[in-house]
User: Fold Active regulator of SIRT1 from Nycticryphes semicollaris.
Amino acid sequence: MSASLLRRGLELLEEPGQREALQELQRERDGPRVVGAARRRKGTSQPGRNKATVKGRVVKSAIEEYHKKQPVNHLTANLKYMLKGRIVANKAITEQVLAQNRGRKSKDQPPKKAVKKKPEGTVFTEEDFRKFEREYFGRP
Assistant:
């Protein structure tokens, strides 16, 4: 940040009337000769033209620059955006995209899912067995 922007920012923050008091103190400290020499040096440049500024340039406030560079939390806006659309992609397409983006190394491959075995059981109930026994063996 340049000295002029810093000075301008400090001017915004100080109380009215304080600047004149500071300038008076500076003049007393420097003495009349130094102030006169500074005026003479200023007078040597072309009158009415300030070479330190660029044509059409707007001097910005130091406070505005400070606020511009502060980190902004975009969490709420991002959450609104993400929760706004409820369209869910097809599971097969999602898997295909993930497979394309995976590397060929074994560390990039997802762990293989174990196939769940169904518990082996009969389709017949006890009542069916009794009924079969009665019909086959002829027992009541």
Remarks:
- The chain has a mean pLDDT of 78.
- Residues 90 and 101 are 17 Å apart (CA to CA).
- The longest helix spans residues 18-30.
